[in-house]
Amino acid sequence: MTLALLLIIPLLAGLLMFLPGAWPRRGLLTATAFSHLALSCLTLRAVLNDEKPSALFGLLQPDALGVVFLMLASVLFTAASVYAVGYLREEEKKHVKRDIQKGQLFTNAPETRFLSCLCFFVAAMTLVTATANLGALWVGIEITTLASAPLIYFHRHQSSMEATWKYLMICSVGIALALLGNILMSVAFHNPAAPAAEGMDQLSAFMARAREVQGTGRALWLKAAFIFLLVGYGTKMGLAPMHTWLPDAHSQAPSMVSGMLSGALLNCALLGILRGHQIMRAAGLGDFSGGLLVFFGLFSMVTAAVFIVGQGHYKRLLAYSSVEHMGILALAFGVGGGALFGGMLHAVCHSLTKCMLFLVAGNILTRYHTLSSYDVRGLRQDMPLSGALWTAGFLAIVGSPPFGLFISEFTILKGIFAHGGLTVAFVYLAALAVIFVGMSIPVLRMAQGTPPRDVPMDYHESLFSVLPPAALCLMVLCLGLYVPDWLVETLNRAAALLGA
Q1: Whole-angstrom distance, CA of residue 11 vs CA of residue 383
Q2: H-type helices in 398-484, by residue range?
């Protein structure tokens, strides 16, 4: 019942948002988020207790790997929902003032669509992370595209319209390629002489029969299937060179949406690739899939480093940082061994840190009304809380101690050295060094100096705008000092599913 409610509650909340009349829709969003978080915690406990939870006729069957990304999506949804209360309140004030000036009647229709799509977005990510059926996973990722597009277009600017269409077109092509990958994988496992009734648990059925493919002509079909899955889901994940939608969408979306796109949605696409990698390993083709992950991981890191240097748009800076960290994750899972645990820990720490940074970026945008890092000065004096979080977030995202990303990146490096990848390690460290320098210049320039004189002085940091990023920052700091035993066990189990 818990699993079913994980999917039903956000779906039902999304539908209720369209009820007419003035009533506390923002309160419903927050209640939905905390309910989803509580149910996700119960699901995590069930997985750790080896209860093998299942719901909706086997459609939802989470394992340790999926439940990690489910928990991340739920935590970020909760933080975004609290942040949205203050954010939407400010947006309402601006729209009411503008409509009064134009002699128009204010309507909350854009907010209603926004809150509804946010609930549908979380429901789709729940399906992706909790299912063991590759077809249902593909459907869930497709729904995330359709549900998140209106979120990107919330401000209804020309630039946000362009970013939304770019997001829809590029990701739709990627999802179509991933569908072809699913079809090719079914072809690889098709055996007319002994048809298999895999039911809903398609992943386990394919892995159980994976050895049948090894050494036969069907292995070529399986390799082709993984290539299409990697390119298709890699487009949604933001791996270079398929990342071109990501900087525009993340920079134009509202800040809490950008945080969820970067911290939760990209993980869902990564999970689609990892499911394919699991099957490849079971078929004895792990070196092939791992080699592709290492290549695209390094290429993404180098590409991100090139675009981060000299980047003056601070939300695009964070978007390219997401390309970098998706590359780190692909590299870690491609290398395997000890790097797998580091990759799982890195996924957790990156999601928390990047969502925190995007929320703080939203505070900065609200205060300065500009996305140029050259026009923002003196955050330390003008916005002491957000300025401190901005600096701490920068130190965390570039892997500085004592934050959790330092531990995860160092663990991945140990895994690379353990497999004798000196060239890979050199490129990995060089990209990290360039990105550290490239990000430090605009971030520290924004934090230091004297605030511009033309900035209005009537801004006050609200509890809704500061508490969610502060909580996320505290989590990442704690993970750099101590990783709880239950989280270590969860990440170890997830890494074991990938071959650790």
Answers
A1: 37
A2: 404-418, 422-447, 463-481
What burial letters (b/e) apply to 147-156, b meaning 16+ CB within 10 Å? bbbbbbbbee
Tell me the torsion sign for CA atoms 38, 40, 44, 49.
Answer: positive
33 within 8 A of 118, measured Cβ to Cβ: no
CB atoms within 10 A of CB 271: 24
Query: What SS3 class is residue 200?
Result: coil
What pTM, to 2 d.p., does this model score?
Answer: 0.94
Alpha helices in 419-462 (DSSP H): 422-447
Return the axis-axis angle of helices 64-101 and 463-481, rounded to nearest 10°. Answer: 160
State the CB neighbour count (10 A cutoff) for residue 96. 13
Between CA 321 and CA 247 the distance in angstroms is 10
Tell me the pLDDT tens digit for each residue of 304-355: 999 999 999 999 999 999 999 999 999 999 999 999 999 999 999 999 999 9
Nearest of 476, 478, 433, 256 to residue 346 by alpha carbon:
476
193-224 per-position pLDDT tens digit: 655 555 678 898 899 888 888 777 788 999 99
Give which of 249, 216, 205, 201 is closest to 66, Cα–Cα: 201
